Amino acid sequence: MASVAIGDVYKSFGTVEVLHGVSVNINDGEFVTLVGPSGCGKSTLLRMIAGLEKISRGQIAIGERVVNNVAPKERDVAMVFQNYALYPHMTVAENMAFSLMLKGVSKAESDAGVQRAAEILGLLPLLTRYPRQLSGGQRQRVAMGRAIVRDPQVFLFDEPLSNLDAKLRVQMRAEIKELHQRLKTTTVYVTHDQIEAMTMADKIVVMHDGIVEQIGPPLELYDKPNNLFVASFIGSPA
Ligand code: ADP
Ligand code: MG
């Protein structure tokens, strides 16, 4: 586990600035949701924490370490995307073991890690299947399994449930929360769904057009919104 400190971060693509000085402090073990309308910069910020996008100005620290110039694989974060991004030609077990193999972990250690993650996520009966033989929910669980086996300091989720139907989404929300209670890994969870953001978070970050409008626990945002945008965004149905 580690804290994540985002300090006055700017991001431009070419001449277009899309993040205009974002600061967020995430405590060790905290579950933070990043919420806001489509295009407000949530994915860009998450990708900067992961190291997939360069920081134009400002800094990001994971634990004590400023990571602006640290390569993604040196950051000890694991990201889960909405489109699963599983390798179709690999089994569930191979998908989960792949990143460990890249890290040079021994076969025995990797097998043990995969078993442990599969047990936590109820994937033990599916380890020899291929992604095409899985349901959407099962695939999403494998994507989470791939993140868990690496035992990262920080989990980054980018709208992981948006491809699932409503019923499964509610179930997976609960599973992700349970997982967090069990592992206590610092988590940054991006969603455009305010219900998801409100029910899952220790702390919510409300973004709008590349800035942070408000940061606080769900009830505080609900009771004392800083402005009309937060009030209408948090208060309106998903
Ligand atoms: P969100 O995840 O909140 O929907 P994004 O972070 O994906 O928003 O995008 C924020 C803004 O940055 C949008 O205006 C988007 O078009 C722009 N953007 C994102 N990625 C790129 C890119 N690689 N090149 C140019 N513009 C981009
Ligand atoms: Mg996005």
Short description:
This protein is an alpha/beta fold. It is built from eight helices and ten strands. Keywords: ATP-binding, Nucleotide-binding, Transport.
- What is the topology, as strand order, of the major beta sheet? 6-7-8-3-9-10
Distinct small molecules bound, one entry per kind: adenosine-5'-diphosphate, magnesium ion
The beta-strand count equals 10
Number of helices: 8
Protein name: Sn-glycerol-3-phosphate ABC transporter ATP-binding protein UgpC
Keywords: ATP-binding, Nucleotide-binding, Transport
Family: Belongs to the ABC transporter superfamily.
GO molecular function, one term: ATP binding
Explain this structure.
The chain has 238 residues and is α/β, with parallel strands linked by helices. The chain is built from 8 helices and 10 strands. It has helices at 42-50, 92-102, 107-121, 136-149, 166-183, 194-200, 218-223, 228-235, and strands spanning 4-13, 16-26, 31-35, 57-62, 65-66, 77-80, 154-158, 186-191, 203-208, 211-216. A 6-stranded mixed β-sheet has the order 6-7-8-3-9-10, sandwiched between helices. Strand 9 and strand 10 (211-216) form a beta hairpin. Helix 2 (92-102) runs parallel beside helix 4 (136-149). It is globular and about 50 Å long. The mean pLDDT is 92. Adenosine-5'-diphosphate is lined by residues 13, 18, 36, 38-44.
List keywords for this structure.
globular, alpha/beta, 37% helix, binds adenosine-5'-diphosphate, 238 residues
List the helices and strands and how they pair.
Layout: E1 4-13, E2 16-26, E3 31-35, H1 42-50, E4 57-62, E5 65-66, E6 77-80, H2 92-102, H3 107-121, H4 136-149, E7 154-158, H5 166-183, E8 186-191, H6 194-200, E9 203-208, E10 211-216, H7 218-223, H8 228-235
Parallel strand pairs: 3-8, 3-9, 6-7, 7-8
Antiparallel strand pairs: 1-2, 1-4, 4-5, 9-10
Helix pairs in contact: 2-3, 2-4, 3-4
The structure holds adenosine-5'-diphosphate (ADP) and magnesium ion.
